[in-house]
Specification:
Distance between the termini: 40 Å
Strand order of the largest sheet: 5-6-7-8-9
Family: Belongs to the HPF/YfiA ribosome-associated protein family. Long HPF subfamily.
Radius of gyration: 19 Å
InterPro entries: HPF/YfiA_ribosome-assoc (IPR050574), HPF_long/plastid (IPR034694), RHF-like (IPR036567), RHF/RaiA (IPR003489), Ribosom_S30AE_C (IPR032528), Ribosom_S30AE_C_sf (IPR038416)
CATH topology of the largest domain: Double Stranded RNA Binding Domain
Number of strands: 9
GO cellular component, one term: cytosolic small ribosomal subunit
CATH class of the largest domain: Alpha Beta
Subunit structure: Interacts with 100S ribosomes. Associates exclusively with 100S ribosomes, which are dimers of 70S ribosomes.
CATH architecture of the largest domain: 2-Layer Sandwich
CATH superfamily of the largest domain: Ribosome hibernation promotion factor-like
GO biological process, one term: negative regulation of translational elongation
């Protein structure tokens, strides 16, 4: 598994990097058969250290966890526990989907934009109705079954996931509803 371990405005020593690789390997290998890469970012907010970890699996799924503590090692350990808990919770489902899927997940390229939010102009009309694009990025849209898409959304903690449904031409969306259920948009 490839690791990318970094710190936002803090120095990450060799001992911490070794600890992260060792502990994350144990946690992930126990529940996921073929992880491809892991991204671990440490940062500091006031007196607390924050650890964010993202692990990409060969099935196309991504597991994310975030934790904070007053000590940097404790922040990572809490993050690793959350990651392990997520993967343990979905182990049976991951194995079932892995058996069904003979080929890797197909990814389509797409553009992703960040658009400026409407700012309160004090009752005045905006100069233009066209939204201002702040940033443009490239992203990937996975070809998944609906079950895999729901699992991916839950693993990543995202409120919404856009995906291409297997055997269909258009894009689909799954999202978390206010009542706690999952919504699915499947265009005709």
């Amino acid at each position: 598994m490839r690791y990318q371990i970094s710190g936002k405005q803090i120095d990450i020593g060799e001992a911490l990097q070794t600890h992260v690789k060792t502990e994350l390997d144990v946690a992930v290998q126990k529940y996921a058969e073929r992880p491809t890469d892991a991204l671990v970012i440490f940062s500091k907010s006031a007196h607390e250290f924050i650890c964010e970890a993202t692990v990409h699996l060969s099935t196309g799924l991504t597991a994310s966890a975030k934790a904070h503590a007053t000590e940097i090692y404790a922040a990572f350990d809490a993050c690793s526990e959350k990651m392990e808990k997520q993967l343990r919770r979905y182990k049976r489902r991951l194995k079932d989907h892995h058996r069904e899927r003979a080929t890797p997940v197909e990814l389509l390229g797409a553009s992703s934009y960040i658009i400026e939010s409407e700012i309160d102009t004090g009752g005045e009309e905006p100069e233009t109705l066209a939204p201002m694009i702040i940033a443009e990025m490239q992203t990937k849209i996975a070809t998944l079954s609906v079950g895999e898409a729901v699992m991916q959304m839950e693993l990543s903690g995202a409120p919404v996931l856009v995906f291409k449904k297997e055997g269909k031409a258009g894009v689909n969306v799954v999202y978390r509803r206010d009542d706690g259920n999952i919504g699915w948009i499947d265009p005709a």
